[in-house]
Amino acid sequence: MKSEVIFDGDNHKWIILGRDPEKSEQVIDTNEYIIVSDGQACLLDPGGIEIFPQVLTEITRHISTDNIACIISSHQDPDISSSLAMWTDLCPNVKVYCSWIWTGFIAHFGMGTKLSLIGVPDEGMEVPIGNSRSNVYLVPAHYCHSSGNFSVYDPKSEILFSGDIGAALIPPDYPMYVDDFDRHIKLMEKFHLRWMPSTTALKNWVRRIRLINPKMICPQHGAIFRGENVNKFLDWLDRLDVGKWDMGAEVTDLNKTVWMKWKKR
Ligand SMILES: [Fe+2]
Ligand SMILES: [Fe+2]
Questions:
Q1: Range of the domain at 139
Q2: Which of 108, 145, 156, 248 could be bridged to 195 by S-S, CB 3.0 to 4.6 A?
Q3: Which helix (H) or strand (E) is 52 found in, with range?
Q4: pLDDT single digits (tens) 6-53
Q5: 3-state class of 120 per DSSP?
Q6: How much is the pTM?
Q7: Which ligand gives the minimal distance to the CA of 148?
Q8: How far is the CA of 210 from the centre of ligand 2 (A)?
Q9: How far apart are the C-alpha atoms of 75 and 77, rounded to whole Å?
Q10: Residue range 227-239: mean pLDDT, rounded
């Protein structure tokens, strides 16, 4: 697994982990992020059980696990939350934040460990990074794609972690930052059309994020948007019409073949 420092200033760092060449082909590639502030760390979307050993090895190159003060799960999916019991076993004092609607569901990943999760209210909240001088903000991103979903904004670095918003399905050697935005659209489009259920929710998120005006947007899959690509990405998202896939021709054709077979039985 590779890691790269994407922000470093005033005792405050962001590190991205990802592009694991040893990852099984069966699991989707994910990015994990760590914020290290005054020696205290916050882990964003820690990843699945399958990649836990690689993530742990890479993290310990940057910080001791004793200093992981909090974990934020943007939503409930297994590629984000299924490793939580392992993190809780390793760091018993860690505070784990996720949407209040998912606490009872994520607890199913407990594997014998009692997961004490802090349920984030729908309007979001401020999260301190341990006893450092830094707080991050959980920004509502409901229905983008999950019905209880948060982005994370860090005012010190002006970085926004966007979870699955901005996700792209990329080849293993893809760069960490988006280079050619128009080419990158092809790697994001299908994901958003299928996984994002609500155009209204996406537009509301874009409006919220334009007010925040982050310098970088970091998704859980794919590559980071920075510089002019931040606005290009928000503009693209604002024009996207999602939640229509099941009305398309693909499904109609599928229905014809599969349903007719069932009918005959
Ligand atoms: Fe997801
Ligand atoms: Fe994801």
A1: 2-264
A2: 145
A3: helix 52-59
A4: 999 999 999 999 998 888 889 999 999 999 999 999 999 999 999 999
A5: strand
A6: 0.93
A7: 1
A8: 23
A9: 6
A10: 98
